[in-house]
Design goal:
Helix content is about 45%, strand content about 15%. It has about 325 residues and is α/β, with parallel strands linked by helices.
């Protein structure tokens, strides 16, 4: 059984309610048909009858709860909640109404905040900023978490590295150029996400173009400092760096370049030094190795709110919804 099949099975065992606000996107509704057919989640689709009709033609969405925000009986409650949450920012009722009815992502987050759903998946036709801004305004971060970051869950076919080809790549979707403290936090959160989703021990590599001092540069110094902070803050976590990619995942190279490292050659969580490296890295592996890439999955928000790549397929959306269900179970 493949990784995503296991995730789907876990999702089915304790079904959660996930909101899909992008009823204007055909792939989203194709994914919804599959999710309903396979019993992965209870779905709420936000949209007007015209939107559902135009984009869902020929699809069987039986079993989904379809909410027209312009007529739904609880819309007034959600708008009042929005005003209450943002009153310190001066949000008026009219502004709340215009925002929530003009951007269904806000409406979806209000449903979660009100306890009427367990998570949201969006981003097939909206930017990451448009997905995360409503989440941070309405759902906010988890208690004790200072940083929201994003990862891709990568499943590489016929791969002996990582956890049978399964990896987390972080941050590959959100944090542009993290300082050492943020990089350490991304590493710790990514390890926790890996253990939740893959149910195996995380082995975290802090990636660089240098391995254990082989190169000198301020960018290397950042990764060294992040590794030190992460080890200090998480003494039980298997984390090491700085490591080049081959030293991190290939046992023979790890043994040669970092013989005393508990992670070298065995890493399954790859923490990239910045968003450029992480985003390029996941897309290279996705396209050249034909890997499954699920995400960007967010971590650090109080409820599971997950983004999608705008290049995603319907199958990708199905996978991210299943992952969101497992996050919600936790």
């Amino acid at each position: 059984m493949g990784f995503i099949d296991v995730i789907k099975e876990r999702a089915r065992a304790d079904k959660k309610t996930i909101v899909l606000p992008e009823s204007m996107d055909r792939r989203t509704l194709e994914a919804a048909e599959t999710i309903l057919k396979e019993g992965i989640a209870n779905l709420v689709i936000i949209g007007t009858p015209e939107e559902i009709e135009a984009n869902g033609k020929g699809l069987d969405l039986t079993g989904a709860t379809i909410i027209n925000p312009f007529t739904y009986e609880k819309t007034e409650e959600y708008l009042n909640l929005f005003v209450e949450l943002r009153k310190s920012k001066g949000l008026t009722y009219e502004e709340a109404k215009e925002t929530a009815l003009g951007d269904y992502m806000y409406y979806a987050c209000l449903m979660v905040k009100a306890g009427d759903a367990d998570g949201v998946v969006s981003g097939a036709c909206h930017s990451t900023a448009n997905t995360l801004r409503p989440s941070l305004q309405i759902i906010k971060t988890k208690p004790g978490v200072k940083l929201v970051s994003a990862f891709f869950l990568m499943v590489v076919p016929d791969c002996e590295y990582g956890e049978n080809g399964t990896f987390i790549f972080a941050d590959s979707g959100l944090e542009q150029n993290p300082d050492p403290e943020k990089l350490a936090a991304i590493a710790a959160c990514s390890a926790e996400s890996f253990e939740l989703l893959v149910q195996k021990q995380a082995k975290v590599a802090m990636l660089s173009h240098s391995t254990m001092g082989s190169a000198k540069h301020a960018d290397v110094d950042k990764v060294v400092e992040a590794t030190r902070i992460c080890k200090e803050m998480n003494p039980d976590l298997l984390v090491d760096g700085e490591l080049q990619l081959d030293a991190a995942i290939v046992p023979s190279v790890g043994q040669s370049k970092a013989p005393n490292s508990p992670v070298a050659g065995k890493a399954n969580v790859l923490v990239f030094p910045d968003l450029d490296a992480g985003n390029i890295g996941y897309k290279l592996v996705q396209r050249l190795a034909k890997a499954e890439a699920y995400g960007p999955v967010t971590q650090g928000i109080a409820m599971p709110i997950n983004d999608l790549s705008r290049g995603c397929s319907a199958d990708d959306i199905v996978g991210v919804v299943a992952i969101t269900c497992v996050q919600a179970q936790a």
